[in-house]
Amino acid sequence: MITLSKANGQAEPLILQHKPPLGRRFRLEFKKNAIVYVFLIPILAHFLVFQIFPLAFSFVLTFMDWPIIGSPKYVGLANWSYFFQDEIAWKAIWNTVLFSVYYILPTMGMGLGLALLVNFGVKASGFFKSLYFLPVVTSFVIISGIWAWLFKGTEYGMINYILSWIGIDTQLFFSDSKQALPVLAALSVFKVSGSTMVYYYAGLKSIPSHLYEAAKIDGASKWRTFWRVTFPLLLPIHFYVAIITTIGSFQIFDSAYLITGGGPNYATTTLVYYLYEEGFTGLRLGYASVLAYILFFIIFAISLVQRKYLGKDVHY
Amino acid sequence: MVKRTNILLLTLIFSLSMLLAACGSGGSNSGQGTDAGEAKSAGEQANSGQDAAGKKLSGNITVWIHPYVAEEKKDELKTVFDGAIGAFNEKHPDVKVKLEEIPWKNREQKILTALAAGNGPDVFYQLPDQIPQFANKDVLEPLTPYLEDNNMDDFSPGSLEAGTYQGTLYGLPILQEAQMMFYNPDIIKDIGEDPANVPKTWDEYNVWAEKAVAKGYYARDFNGGAACCNATLYPILWQFGGDVIDDSQNAVINNAEGVAAFQFIKDMYNKGWIPKDSISNQDQFPEYLSGKMLSVWGAGVTLSVLKTENRDYVTGPPLKGKAEASFGTVGMFVVPKNSKNKEAAAEFVKVLTNTETQMAFNKLANYIPTRKSASSIYDNDEDMKKFLEVAAYARPGVMSPVARTIMPKIQAEIAAMLEGGKTPQQAADAAAKAIQDEQSKG
Amino acid sequence: MTVSMKKNVFVYLMLMILGIIFFFPFAMMILGSLQKVERATADPLFWIPTNPTLYNFSYIMNQSSFVQWIKNSLVITIVPVLAQIFFGAVLGYIFAKKKFPGREFVFWTMMAVVMVPGQLLIIPKYVMFSQFGWINTYASIIVPELWAIMGVFLVRQFMMTIPKDLEEAAYMDGAGDFTIFFRIMLPLAKPAIATIGTFAFISCWNDLFTPLIFMTSEDMFPITVGLASILTKEGNFGVEMAGSAISFVPTFLIFIFFQRYFTEGIAMTGLKS
Fold first, then answer.
1. CATH code at B201?
2. Whole domain around residue B271: which residue ranges?
3. Which of C93, C51, C55, C123 is nearest to C196 (CA)?
4. Do residue B418 and residue B296 come from a single domain?
5. What are the start and end residues of every segment in region (Disordered) (chain B) (predicted)?
6. Residues B166, B143 within the same domain
7. In which element (H, E) is residue B315 found?
């Protein structure tokens, strides 16, 4: 016990010389670290039961044909090899990647823009900051319900009505396999950019003002200052936000489930939606577990990047 | 002092979480216990046919029902079921019946998962196209041994067929449905036609549709985003003389008639007979209600909404092409194999589907009774009489273990076709291939 | 007009435009909930309520199941929130301040496992919980959520900034571990704890995926699953929006009162290792 000897070394150097009896050492250790034994051990048990075991079990499931009803049987690598020829699975991955493309940069840009606006510090900017943040705390169910009505794909839809003011033809939105995914992504941008705004806002606040002053003395324009000082100094924030939004985008499910049901023609079948369909509608728990592992591998790779770039403190 | 209360609190929280964990293992023990119980009841079941009525049944049964009626009629529905429980308890006073209402959405998944968990109901509601799937997985109790005293001849043959898979009866039907056309009389007049003389064939209908679209209306609905395909593709497919899977389980959706049906849907979309968002729209009834649509393909629930909303409407028969066809589901009650009280459950299913319950239930929920002796409830209702006529030839969907899993795939092909990514022929071929793939997955 | 005034006008204009865009869907929700329409028409003008009414609210509240959904949501939210606050604080303290072999290994293993998407664990958990008899019970939602590593992480980060002298001094004064935790560390970590609480509240209250799978009967649904079942039922728009509005109230209140902790919490997780 490193702790013990070190602590004793400081607090009771005399006793250390003629080793205290075991019971006393035990009591001392408990007194100092009681909280570890009382709480960490049950939590570890909980961790094993509710995280590690299911993780291992799901791996076993990938080698099984495990219909929800009926008896499971071992099928070897059949589920894994089916994955490689399952066009819909690859389409689901591709959709998920596309979703990330539609979602990540707009969310970051929107968040940065909002943060810059709020950071001007005009009166009532606190109010607007809260307003922009409001969708973050609102459930997908509520926003999806509203979104489906806003983006109704006939001339009677609200957004189509507004578009008609500026002479744009009626758009199909969720009935168009090219538009459905971007419209779903827009929902997520709307929902999430409030939180990226907060990251950027914190980042902007932490940039020392002397750097701006220096730029000012050099006679740099606002525009130039932004690109030469502010933007590069926000680099760690860019990385962090990029990674959390990417992870979030790979787990997108709620809006596809609620609004499009994966359609039209699989255009919004994301990886998690497909997993859900295969597992709980198609009753192929084994194959659904394979899909879950694919999702895991992707997210794991992203978080490796996160640790590589963000495993250290941010310095200015 | 603060410290002590805090520690107390911790201990409390911990014992609580331990307690929860303990409940867990307790549950699993009792699960094993019931396995033994199940074996016993399976043994008893052998002679249950003869003396079920006379024998004293006891224990609990859980029955899963669904919201068969609109919210405001919920209390009346409860009265109907309470009546059935009352009648059942007169015969079997020691059986406690517990009703649980499960929403329609994801019902299938919920039933499956609960059955898998072994904490499912003893009686639940089942639709025809799920019977093969469930029977195939051997989770349904054959009801034949329990039915000797049940006057089976009273049931309409079609409704019994819906509960039958490979010659065994698994479900007793309580209701039947049929779909037909509903027209907006104002639009009929606006296009210069006679509401008293609605189309009976597709040829007649197409003339009306052209006129309606010329006047800026939609002709009809096509809810392509809703659960495919019993109310969308299949009725049209059958009316055009096609089918999904033939009697020897071959995919025939892409035969000449099938392709013609696909082509027709595509034409309706291109010509604006159905709204442009038909690909993803889950419910176009609002368009009909707001006076923008000539007709909708609807069922009993459509009728009851039109009535409660005080709308004028005209009903019309399913349109005849090469064949006369409609979709009409059959609702039945089944007993899962792993029920802990199968005899009582089967007896309760008999009460749920007897003449008295069917009369009360169907009158309230606006469905068609499956027992001929209960059909008198609609003697004075012209609309329901029409439904009774249609029900005579309505089909209960696709009877195949893959009936459910092929639906989203067919839906995707229709979406691809409507969007223009595939021709009707290609879409029908792809649908047929998807059906074969699902069948080969087993 | 000076340059800075011009700039301010521009900033206000942008803030307002974006504010309107962000508020628009919420306005739709409120407007929609205030009209008595059994079925919403597709007409955009439908949105302007000619006869505002609270009918939809009384209608939905009178449905027995709706009140039950709210109760269920409260149960599966409040218990995890309290537990996560507590365990987040204790474990955060342990991982920040206590030294024992394998500490880093345990902590980073836990952090790594949290990277495992919940969707991966839902299938094995389903099989497990069916063995426990937990399906369609509160336990299936609550027990796995009793603690969350992100909360632990937050407190750990926070406590690592507290100077070591503080606890050393307390220890030399003869204070035990629990005393140090409850008397010194816990009060200091209040902001981090409030953050855990607000985050846990929002994520539990808004969760759809887990209860969608574990809760099988309508009377056990939380508000999210219940609302989803209304939304996809045939469009009773006014009632849908009234239901949405009611379910939004608790998150809105939490947001109003604890907003600071959200923004601070987000910044905290983002900016420190």
1. 3.40.190.10
2. 180-327+402-441
3. C93
4. yes
5. 30-54
6. yes
7. strand B314-316
* Contact in structure between B139 and B337 (CB atoms under 8 Å): yes
Which chains would you list as touching C if contact means 3+ CB atom pairs under 8 Å? A, B
Tell me, yes or no, whether B3 lies in a domain: no
Q: Find where tokens 């910044």 sit.
A: C267
Residue type, B229: C
Please indicate, yes or no, if residue B396 is contained in any of the structural domains.
no
Residue of C nearest to B18 (CA): C143
What is the residue type of B272?
G
Hey, is A165 helix, strand or coil? helix
| Strands B123-126 and B330-334, bridge-based pairing | antiparallel
> Quick one: B72 and B165 in the same domain?
yes
What is the interface pTM, i.e. ipTM, of the complex?
A: 0.85
- Total structural domains in chain B? 2
CB C88 within 8 A of CB C181: no
**Domains of chain A (ranges, CATH numbers):** 2-49 (no CATH), 79-310 (1.10.3720.10)
Question: Does the distance separating the beta carbons of C130 and B23 come in below 8 Å?
Answer: no
Within this chain, do residues B380 and B408 fall inside the same structural domain, yes or no? no
- Spell out the per-residue pLDDT of chain C, length 273, in tens: 566 777 788 889 999 999 999 998 898 888 888 887 655 555 656 667 777 888 888 888 877 688 999 999 999 999 999 999 999 999 998 898 888 888 889 998 888 787 788 888 888 998 888 778 787 889 999 999 999 888 898 888 888 888 888 778 877 787 777 888 888 888 888 888 888 898 899 889 999 999 988 887 778 899 999 888 777 554 567 888 889 999 999 989 988 888 878 777 766 665 443
> Which of B14, B17, B225 lies nearest to residue A263, judging by beta carbons?
B225
Q: Kindly list the residues from chain A whose CB atom is less than 8 angstroms away from the CB atom of residue B433.
A: none
Q: How many residues can be counted in chain A?
A: 316
Q: What is the pTM of this model?
A: 0.80
Question: Does any domain span residue B9?
Answer: no
